[in-house]
Amino acid sequence: MTRTVRLLEITDVPIDVAAVYAAVADPQAGGVALFVGTVRDHDHGKEVVGLDYSAHPTAEAVLRDLVGKMITSYEVRAVAAAHRVGTLAIGDIAVAVAVACDHRGDAFTASRALIDELKATVPIWKHQRFRDGSEEWVGTP
C-alpha cells in the first residue's frame, strides 16, 4: 500500500478545509475522516474572547516526524494536517487533519490518534484571553 503525506503545514493564514480534504482524495480509500478544531467561546467555565497560537521553530519538523510514524502504524493511504498560528477569533479554524484509509473504522482510529498526538507533542502553544481580563497559556513546557 502506498502511504503518503500530501499536505503538512503550520500556517498563519486561514486553513482551507476543502484543500485539506482534497489533499487526501484517493480512489482506493473507502473512508476519509476529517477533523476540524475551532476556537470555542468558553474554557474552564469562563468566556473566551480570543486567543493566539504560537509555534516553536521546530513545530513543522515535529509534526512531519509524527505523521511519518503514524502512517507506518496505521493502514493509511493519505494524510493531511494543518495548524494555524497567530491571532484567532471565536469560530476560526485552528487545526484540520484528514486521513484516508481503505475502511472507515481505520480512518476514524488513525485521525483520532493523529489529532491527539499532535495536540500532545507538537510544540504549538495557545494563549487564551478571557472576558474577565484573565489569561492562560496552554501547552507550554
- Cα-atom Rg, whole angstroms? 16 Å
Please give the share of residues in helix. Answer: 25-40%
Largest sheet: 5 strands, antiparallel
The SS-based structural class is alpha+beta
Give me the count of strands: 9
**End-to-end span in angstroms?**
37 Å
**Shape field:** elongated
DSSP helical segment count:
3
Poorly predicted tracts of residues? none
Run of helices and strands = EHEEEHEEEHEE
- In round numbers, the mean pLDDT is 95
User: Which percent band covers the strand fraction?
Assistant: 35-45%
Outline the structure in words:
- The model has no long low-confidence stretch (mean pLDDT 95).
- With 141 residues, the chain is of the alpha+beta class.
- It contains three helices and nine strands; from the N terminus they run βαβββαβββαββ.
- The protein has helices spanning 17-23, 59-73, 104-121, and strands at residues 4-11, 31-38, 42-43, 46-55, 76-84, 86-88, 93-101, 124-130, 135-138.
- The strands form two sheets. Strands 3, 4, 6, 8 and 9 form a five-stranded antiparallel sheet that branches. A four-stranded mixed sheet has the order 1-5-7-2, sandwiched between helices.
- The radius of gyration is 16 Å and the shape is elongated.
